Amino acid sequence: MLTTLLRWIGAYKAYSRFLRDQIYDGDLPQHVGIVLDGNRRWASSRLFGPNEGHKVGADTAEQVLDWCLDLGIKTLTMYVLSTENLQRPNGEVKEIIGLIDERLARLSKDERLQKNKVRVKALGTLELLPESTRHLLSHVEEITKDHDQHFLNIAIAYGGRTEIVDAIKRIAELVKNGELSIEDVDQKSIERYLYTSHLPNPEPDLVIRTSGEERMSGFLMWQSAYSELVFTDAYWPDFRKIDLMRAIRTYQKRMRRYGR
Predict the structure, then answer these.
(1) 172/51 Cα distance (integer angstroms)
(2) Of the listed 21, 25, 27, 37, which one is catalytic?
(3) 90 flagged as catalytic
(4) What is the pLDDT averaged over residues 166-177?
(5) By the number of CB atoms within 10 A of the CB, which of 1, 3, 38, 65 ranks highest?
(6) pLDDT in tens, 4-39
(7) What residue ranges define each of the domains in the chain, with the CATH number in brackets?
(8) Are 234 and 35 within 8 A, CB to CB?
(9) Using one digit for the tens of pLDDT, what is the confidence trace for 93-126?
(10) Using CA atoms, how far apart are residues 168 and 189, in angstroms rounded to an integer?
(11) Given the residues 21, 39, 85, 166, the one annotated as active site
(12) Residue 164 to residue 246: CA distance in whole angstroms
C-alpha cells in the first residue's frame, strides 16, 4: 500500500513538472478568473454537510494564491459569493459568512501579501454583507492598498449585471451634473466605473469554472467578453495545481483574435 502511494506521488510530481515545462514554453495569462463551484456537491458525494464542502473549498482557495504566485500570474479574481448565494437558507448563509470572516482575518496576517506585494480588493455590493465582513474586507484592502506587484480580487456579494448598472448610474450622475457629456460616454468611460477599474489588466485572459457547469453565472460580464473559457469537471475542493496548469495549457493552444 505504501509502495503504491509513493509511486502515485512520484508520478504526480513528474506530471506536474511536465505540465510546468509545457506552459512555460508559451505565453502565461496575466489575469486569471475562477468561478469556485461545486462545494456542496463535493460534500454531498461524501455524505458530508454543505459547510464541510465550503471549508475544504476555502482551503483550496488559499492554495490557489500560492500557485498563481509560483507560476507568475499577476492577477487572480475569485468568484467567492454571488448575490444569489445570499438567498440560500439562512443557516447555510450564516455558516458561509462565518467561514469567510475567519479566512479574511487569516488573510490580513498572511505574509504572502507583504512578501509578494499583493493588493487585495473586494468586488461586489458590499452593503449586502454583515458589518463584521465589511470591516475585515476594508482592513485587508487598507493594509495592501499600496501594493502593485500582484492583485487578488475577491468577488463577494457580486453580480455582473449589478456591476454594470452601478457603472451606468455613476455615469448618469456625472451627465446630470454637467461633468460629462453624452457624446463622451464610451466603452472607456464605462470601464472607468467598473469594480475592476483599479487593475492594470482588468480583463481576464482566462476564466476557469469548476464542477462541470458550463456557464458564467454573471461573472465579470463586461470584462470577460474576450476571455478564454475553460470548464473543468473537478468540484472546487478537488481542484489541484495540475488542473490550473492544464487550463493554462488549453488557453495557450487557442488563437485569440478578439473578433478580428
Answers:
(1) 42
(2) 37
(3) no
(4) 96
(5) 38
(6) 555 656 777 888 899 999 998 899 999 999 999 999
(7) 28-252 (3.40.1180.10)
(8) no
(9) 999 999 999 999 999 999 999 999 999 999 999 9
(10) 10
(11) 85
(12) 32
